[in-house]
Structures are given as structure tokens and as C-alpha cells.
Amino acid sequence: MKGSLLTDLASTPARAEDRTPAPASRPRTGVVAVRVLLLALVAVLLLSDGVRAAELLWLALLLAAALVATAAPQGHEVARLGRTAEVLITAFAASTLNGDAKYLLVYLPVPIVAAALSEGRRMAGAYVLASAALLVVGGAVEGRLDDRNYLTAGGQWLVIAGVAAFQATILQRVLLARRPDDTPQPYAEATRLLTQLRSVARQLPGATLDPGGLAEHLLDEVRAIVPATRGAVLSGSGGGRLVVLAQAGVERLDWETALDTESAVADSWATQQPVVSGRSQARSVVGGGSISSMVVPLIAGVRTVGLIVLETDSSGTYPPALVAKVQSVTGPAALRLEAALLFDEVRSLATTEERQRLAREIHDGVAQELVMVGYGIDNAVAALPNAGAAEEELRVLRAEVTRVITELRLSLFELRSEVDRYGGLTAAIADYARTVGASAGLRVHLSLDETTARLPAAVEAELLRIAQEAITNARKHAGAENLWVTCAVDPPFAQVEISDDGSGIGENRPDGRYGLAIMAERAERIRGRLEITPRVPNGTTVAVVLGTAPRAR
Question: pTM of the full predicted structure?
Fold first, then answer.
């Protein structure tokens, strides 16, 4: 009962002495239990030495008042009338029952404490004063003011009721201070921010929050005001490395993305200051002539969002005036890029969570039910040893159920597959190809080449989904025996190629065409090129290429 009472105290709104009643609510379990127990105790004490009509009458009236006070919603006028009736009946009965007053007064703290919790200390104090006045008036009428036992019992229970009401309000406030809000603050704040983000996104030019598109626009904007033969926009990805969001120039460059090296890129990131250098910020040698490079941090508030790197094939190209001009452009751009990166991260987290949720629901629901169907078919086959035709039909059905369960398990594995932060894209694709190959009886041939640099997380996720779709098509539709998986990742370049020796893509296969459309949409989303070609002598090759291939070294 103690736990129930504490729960009720915490669920009653805290209020000052002069606050209005609480909104209507259903009766609370703890309050009902206390009233029932004390009413039962009073009845036992009064009737323990015999049953008398006057005592039964007062008990009946007190029970009726208690029912009204308990059944009415808390804070309602009817509940207040019920508590007032409890106080009046208890005080009058105590003054009329000679020798039994102390038994009836046991119930007096109940309506007073209930009033303190529902309406504050002021109402509880009014009830205490009213009870004292009624005991005095009733005692005077009944000639009991010279009865020491009567006065002692009345004084004791009035003090107990007042102290109990005061302590109850203090405990109520303490519990409410420790109790979390009905709406957790992080979720309320997240809702507010996401609502604002949705409104802002609709007002953006082109309604886009694509980090790659914003990075390309920033490069074009900067190259229009300062000379730059080539350039790139880099952003942080964790693990002490940067990723290339966009680049511009005649040819592809392997930009320096490590933050633990001696380079202008690392210095600018660490100091949050522009750095001008006479060396290229690329990992490969551009040429033997003079070079000027400038690295400007993209700072939003106090956080470094990324860097913009510009280079020319001449010395002394970037004086302080030009650096300041670039900074005037990168300030607003940093805010836009940070919003895009945050939005991309939120979208990625939401997508991952939804995939995991679907995987759990399918695994715990449909997958388990199909397994039980398979067991049922096995039992039916065992029970039909002499019915050849029925047995054969059941065996065919059992094989189909097994196939569906296998497909479902592979779909669950695909939903759960993600690019590990430390394993990389090629490891995720290889793991998926091996699992699918083992379940489908395909011989898998892997050719993996990945540098330590990483692509943006959103790009890696899309490349993994494209590879999964291509592998699934080869397993389900091509009837292949061999699967060749080739992955080359050297950011910002990436190429993923899936080949099989199956029957190829036929014109009358709408399911396969739908899968190709999905892959094409994913490739377009990351500005990649999807290439689907026949494989000689038979089969299909699906390749997605991002960026331009690195130059031979």
C-alpha cells in the first residue's frame, strides 16, 4: 500500500495554497485503499463492545460521504462536498458518542490530507479549524468540555491531521520534482527542431539538402571570384580522416584527407584558420612547376564543418585580400553545408532504425510462422506413408516453404547489413556476397581494393544497396553458377562491379526490370553512373562508377 500511496502523491499536481483545483481525473487506488482500511478500522473499534443504533447510523452516514468523496473526480465540486461531509460527520459523531469519540476521530486525517493533496494547504487548514470548532460546539452542547479524555482525544487527532496534511504536501512536491515530464525533454526538443528543419527545407532554393550538391555549388561560386585550376570540398567523417564531397578541375586528384599528417589541410582543420601553401594538397604529384594552394575552413558557429581547397599552377596566387574574399563566401556556405550534413545523418539514422525494425518484425512474425508451417507439413508427410500422390504434393509444398524461408532469411540479412565504421564498404559487400553465395550454391570470386580513405557514409550505403540488388538479381533470376564481385574504392572514386554467368536479363522479366530501376535511382542519387552490359560468353555485368578512375602511378 505504501508504493500505491507514493504513486498517488506523485500523480497529483503540485499546487500552491491558493491555486485552483486540479482537473477532473479518475479515483486513485491509494486513496480508495486508505479510506476503506480506516473505515473498517473505525467500524471494528466502535462495534467491538456491542452494536448500537447510534453508532450504526453515524457509520452509515460516514460511509455515504466517503463514497461521494471517492467516486467523484479529483478536484470536482462533488468531491469537495464529500470531503466536507466527512469532516462534519466525524466531528459531530465524536461529540455525541460518549467514550467512543477517540475511535471516530481516527478517520479525521483522511479528508483533511485528501484536501491538502487536491486543493492545497489552505483548504486543509480550513478543515482543521472547522473540525476544532465543531468539536468545541458539539462538546458544549453535549456538556463534555469538562471531559478530559474528550478534549485530549480531540486535540491529539487535530494535531495529527494538521501535521499529516503538511507533510503530505511536502512529500508531494519532492516526488513531483523527481518525476520526469510526461513528454521527455530530448524528444520534445527533437520534435521542435525537426519541425523547423522541415519548414526551412521547403523554403530552400530547389528544396535540397544534399551535401554533394551544395559542395559543388560552393566550388563554382568560389572559382568565379578567385583563380583556381582545381579544387575540392572536404568534410569530416570520424576516424581522423576527411571525405571528398565534391571536386573540380581538369583531372581527378587524390586529395590529402588524413588529419595526422603535416599538410595545410591538417593545419587548417586544427587551427580553424586559412592556410596558404606553396605545395599541392594532393597525395599524388601534380607536376614539377610552381604551385599555390589555399585551404579555408568552413566554420559554423564554433565547429569546423569542412574545408575548401583551391590550387593553381603558379606561385603567389593567393594574397590575403583573396583569402578574405573566399572567407566572405564560405561563412554562409558553412551553415548550409552543416544543415545538409546533419539532415543526411538524421535521415541515415532513421533509415537504419527502420530497416532494423522491419527485420525484427519479420523475424519474429512471418518467419516463425513459416517455420511452423514447414514442421506441420513434415508431420503430415510422416502420417501418410501409403498415400503416394498426397505425399508427393506435400513434399513439393515443403520444398516451396523451404525456399520461401531461405528467401526470407536472405532478405533479413540484407536489411541488417550496414557498412561498418571500421570495416569499410568492400568488407560489407564481400560479406553479403559470401552469405548469399553459400545459401544459393554460387561460387563467389572476390577482387577487392580499398584505400584507407572513406567515402561519405550516405554514398557507401547507396553503393552497398546497389551491390545487394545486383547480387540478388543474379541469385534469383539468372540461374548462374559463378558470381564475380569487384570493388575498387579510392575516394572520391569508387567502382563496384557484379558479374554472373547466368541467362542474362530478358525482356519478359518485369521483376528484374524493377530491380534495375531501383539501382538506377540509387546511382543517380549519388551522382554515379550505372552500366549494365552483357557478359561474354553469357551472363550480365552490373557496374556502378563514382568519379573518375585514378591515374596510374
Answer: 0.43
